[in-house]
Design a protein that fits this description.
Layout (H helix, E strand, L loop, with lengths): L1 E4 L5 E5 L2 E5 L17 E3 L21 E3 L3 E5 L2 E10 L10 E10 L2 E5 L10 H6 L5 E5 L8 H11 L3 E5 L9 H9 L3 E3 L2 E2 L11 E5 L2
Parallel strand pairs: 3-4, 4-5, 9-10, 10-11, 11-14, 12-14
Antiparallel strand pairs: 1-2, 1-13, 2-3, 6-7, 7-8, 8-9
Helix pairs in contact: 2-3
Length: 212
């Protein structure tokens, strides 16, 4: 599979002729919108910065959209969504919003995208469901999601093979990525992540920053 970062919390995952996207960015968002076709779209938070399903209906592809917690299966891809909360981009008078964390099984690997998570502790259901994580996408930017320090604590607790920070490109607090890398002792920057199961051998919480 090949993983690319498109700003904010948006990641495109391609394997073969199948395309999956986490948190596609809409036209009326604070970030530049995306424009590519996807077969499967997963939305963690109902906000323009993370819910641009229409923008990935393109090039003959019409995505199957998953917008909340539950168990799903589409084109051989197994998805499990876990309920959590966010304080990102709240409407006036609201104290929190629904956030969905997603665990995806594909190509014999487990990808977990935490969305715009603000919870420092996960529910019992989520802890049990996220017991073996190969690639973890974790928000690090503060401003309604986890801070760099709390993101690092949670990432370490989940024991993933690879940690990919998000919510630092085009959103989040200034210098969030620098603060996170200071917490973790550094990481490697790549323009895309090409990954096979065998590449995970020897990985133990490696930090990979996929540049947008």
């Amino acid at each position: 599979m090949v993983i690319t970062h498109h700003g904010g919390q948006c990641f495109k995952v391609t394997f073969g002729d199948f395309t999956l996207v986490f948190d596609p960015i809409a036209k009326n968002a604070t970030l530049p919108s995306v424009r590519f076709g996807a077969d499967l779209a997963l939305v963690s938070r109902n906000h323009p910065d993370m819910n641009g399903v229409e923008e990935v209906s393109y090039g003959g592809k019409e995505p199957f959209a998953i917008l909340g917690p539950g168990e799903y299966e589409h084109s051989g891809v197994t998805v499990q969504g876990f309920l959590s909360s966010s304080r990102y981009g709240l409407e006036k008078g609201k104290e929190q919003a629904v956030n969905t964390m997603y665990a995806i099984e594909l190509e014999d690997m487990t990808l977990v995208h935490l969305g715009a998570l603000v919870d420092e502790e996960l529910s019992k259901e989520a802890r049990e469901g996220l017991d073996e994580v190969d690639v973890l996408f974790v928000p690090i930017g503060g401003d309604g999601v986890l801070s760099a320090a709390k993101a690092h604590e949670l990432a370490v607790a989940l024991e993933p093979k690879i940690i990919v920070p998000m919510h630092w490109s085009g959103m989040g607090e200034p210098n969030a990525l620098d603060a996170f890398l200071k917490e973790t002792g550094g990481g490697e920057k790549v323009d895309k992540l090409t990954l096979k199961k065998k590449d995970l051998i020897g990985q133990d919480g490696s930090i990979l920053v996929i540049t947008a």
